[in-house]
């Protein structure tokens, strides 16, 4: 009986030590921890009995009712990935085509490292309302959006769209007049633009 108890304690200690070692390894690279946390919020799922174009329009209208905007829009296999934010509240939305007339949305909102479940629910409600009120020919309004490119040149493949004037995480590249961004899918891409004098 005593040896069985010692074995249990030994196994428990090894599990605890293994967990501590894993936590220490992750904590040694702070950027990884932040990126993983932000990318893995579960989010709020809803389904719309709409085709993809009308679903995109409903998302855009729903966000605008809450004084938010789609900052980046990227076509991905079977749908679209979007980023929204205003500097304090940020998040992403993934639209996935299930059938010709059924689209599933996953909405994830966060303030820093804190998930905002109540905001996700409010956004889902606004998108549902916009989808019910939308017309048959409703579509995403691209006026005011510029293209995102695979390379820092306008002849390169277009990978998506962004809203000029919004705060985006960018890095400077060697080619003047261009900035590098990371798309919602994680792919690097390029936009025409320049940093303001205050660094934004």
The CATH H-level homologous superfamily of the largest domain: Kinase associated domain 1, KA1
Rg result: 21 Å
Assembly category: single chain
CATH-derived topology of the largest domain: TATA-Binding Protein
Unreliable spans: 1-40
Q: Estimate nothing, just give the exact number of structural domains.
A: 2
pLDDT averaged residue by residue = 79
SS summary, helix count: 4
What is the CATH architecture assignment of the largest domain?
2-Layer Sandwich
Q: Which CATH C-level class of the largest domain is it?
A: Alpha Beta
Provide the structure class: alpha+beta
- Helix fraction bin: 25-40%
Order of helices and strands: HHEHEEEEEHEEEEE
Instruction: Characterize the largest beta sheet: strand count, sense, and whether it forms a barrel.
Output: 8 strands, antiparallel
N/C terminus separation: 67 Å
Beta-strand percentage range:
25-35%
- Number of DSSP-assigned strands: 11
- Described by the principal axes of the CA atoms, the overall outline is globular
